[in-house]
Amino acid sequence: MNLEQIPHIKHIDKDNFFLLAGPCAIESEEMALRIAEKVVNITDKLGIPYIFKGSFKKANRSRIDSFTGIGDEKALKILRKVAETFKVPTVTDIHEVSDAKLAAEYVDVLQIPAFLVRQTDLVVAAAETGKVVNLKKGQFMSPESMQHAVKKVTDSHNEQVMITDRGTMFGYQDMIVDFRGIPTMRQYAPTVLDVTHSLQQPNQSSGVTGGRPEMIETIARAGVVNHVDGLFIETHFDPANAKSDGANMLDLKHLEKLLHNLVQIRKCVKAL
User: Fold this and answer.
1) Whole-prediction pTM value?
2) The domain 3-271: what is its CATH number?
């Protein structure tokens, strides 16, 4: 994958990790623009290449009454407005083959959710749009098995592909990050560490996923030390009242300090 080919990507000359960050789901135009403005200001200050993340719909929900979105095209138009307002690229996840063509009209990166990364038709549909494809590693998959998902994209005549590790199931209700997998997956494609989803605690009896956001900096630091190409962080100005994944999101007020620390660690690692 070549970052330079992503529209509006900035700061690629700074030799930093790149960042995919934003809310779990698009809840409204006001919230998306508010979060994007804050993250753009921070990443411009720190020289971090930035892609705004927001799901236009949420198909993988624990309960039937869980929030799934505000309407597909409404949310996608908000993602386009974020891109136009702040001149940043955007990423959203897709769940069905028909989503690929629709979402590709609005965003720059199509993300394949971890539970769906083995779905060949979905991966190929995303690849055939010509957009960058972000493959989330399945919680049930080995790092080595991700080479086959990458090959599905490249065999579809699209070299713009990256892998994102979002942790591996450890029992029924916890996730771990096996940092041995990062150098393995980097052999196949640029590799991103999804810090916040790696701290989820799924399958709670309440039907609402839990999380350990107090460990975000611990996981992120370890990722930077181990040479991840990018970081994925879901963030919200009011995580307690977010409509999706609030339990593991980073409070937006803590993002600047976190990223400042991580940039300093990156400099130390690069100097070794």
Assistant:
1) 0.94
2) 3.20.20.70
